[in-house]
Design goal:
Elements (H helix, E strand, L loop, with lengths): L2 E6 L4 H4 L13 H14 L4 E6 L3 H14 L4 E3 L19 H4 L1 E5 L4 E5 L6 H17 L5 E6 L1 H12 L3 H6 L8 E6 L1
Parallel strand pairs: 1-6, 2-3, 2-6
Antiparallel strand pairs: 1-7, 4-5
Helix pairs in contact: 2-3, 5-6
Length: 186
């Protein structure tokens, strides 16, 4: 049996300032690096043999820190795991979501904008997530897999893996920086 785990990247400079980063490419903060090292300690006993990673710097740094701690294993940079394109909201403070976003989903921790000018719709992110899940399932290498990605993509990976709706997934618990989530076993 193979298990797929998911983690969100460590805190980056936009996260620390409550900025919507989307495709912005800032590095991890010192706290983000510490979060990645703590995640690595938890992952050591999970027998990870392969890491799929978003191409953005914050994820690549997180994956590298984890990889250093758990052993030299392959890291596959997967373009489909890149964060949702936030369109006009990219670089905005989270308080400004209401100024540019349209149609919202309020959860305990996050206010998700369901649309905004030039933003990638969640439906497209879900399609990407389904392709990633299919790719991982078809990979015949032995051992468990870790995905290092972002909250919005992580929530769509959850929707794809559990076959639930976008709203059901977003309404669940958000993924904290370097939180480890068991995504699926097969």
């Amino acid at each position: 049996m193979k298990t797929v785990y998911l983690t969100r990247h460590g805190q980056d400079y936009d996260n620390a300032r409550h900025i919507l980063n989307g495709h912005r490419n800032y590095p991890l903060t010192e706290l983000g690096k510490k979060q990645a090292r703590q995640a690595a300690k938890k992952l050591r006993r999970k027998k990870i043999s392969l890491i799929y990673c978003s191409p953005l710097r914050r994820c690549r740094q997180t994956a590298s820190i984890i990889n250093e701690a758990i052993g030299d294993i392959p890291i596959i940079i997967e373009p489909q795991l890149i964060e949702r394109d936030f369109g006009t909201l990219t670089g905005c403070h989270v308080d400004d979501i209401v100024l540019h976003g349209k149609k919202f989903l309020h959860t305990k921790k996050i206010k998700y904008f369901m649309s905004a000018p030039s933003a990638e719709p969640f439906g497209k992110v879900l399609q990407r997530a389904r392709r990633v899940i299919k790719k991982i399932r078809s990979d015949r290498r032995n051992g468990n897999v870790l995905i290092v990605t972002h909250n919005d993509v992580g929530k769509m990976l959850e929707a794809a893996a559990k076959k639930i709706t976008i709203t059901q997934s977003l309404s669940g618990k958000s993924i904290s920086n370097c939180e480890i989530v068991k995504l699926l076993s097969y």
